[in-house]
Amino acid sequence: MDIAKHLAVIDRLCARDFPAEHGRSDLVVAAGPGYFVAELETSHGLRVGEAALRARAAEDFHALKEAVARMLDVRLGQRQSPWSMLTLRVRGARGEAIPEPWAEVSLRTDELSLWGPDGTGRWVAVGVADRDRADEIQLLAIVTDTAPP
Predict the structure, then answer these.
(1) Coil, strand or helix at 141
(2) Dist CA 114 CA 78 (whole Å)
(3) CA diameter of the chain
(4) Omega before 101 cis (within 30°)?
(5) CA end-to-end span of the chain, whole Å?
(6) Rounded to whole angstroms, how far apart are CA atoms 95 and 46?
(7) pLDDT, block means (10 residues), the chain with 149 residues
(8) Buried b / exposed e along 109-137 (16+ C-beta atoms within 10 A)
(9) CA distances to 18, 71, 72, 93 from 110, in Å
(10) pTM of the model
(11) Residue 93 pLDDT
């Protein structure tokens, strides 16, 4: 769990051009016109694992997210209030079209730390993907030019 490494990945994503097509790359698990979603850290062996072990690992990932967020506060300014993904999930379930990357991220995370656009017009967010017990826990970084819906 290397915070400096995670910040370097976020810096690279902020500096890169967004792809024209949906896909993956060396740093990202999902990308498309106007966004990147990167896995900064991933657990190993916790898919449908022991509940207590998974819960402790999730706590560690949330602590890591907070440490990364504090460093991003220094770089990007104070983050917005924690942004719950529940509303986006409900809106999507009701048939509203939620733009990417927000639609995918809302299904994987419960809450994001979010920073508004800087001079580049890009939004930055970090969150912990731990909603699906069949998946590993992940610390995600999102860089996008699409404002949160």
Answers:
(1) strand
(2) 9
(3) 45
(4) yes
(5) 31
(6) 32
(7) 91 91 78 94 80 89 97 93 94 96 96 88 95 91 95
(8) bbebbbbeeeeeebbbbbbbbbeeeeebb
(9) 25, 21, 20, 15
(10) 0.93
(11) 95
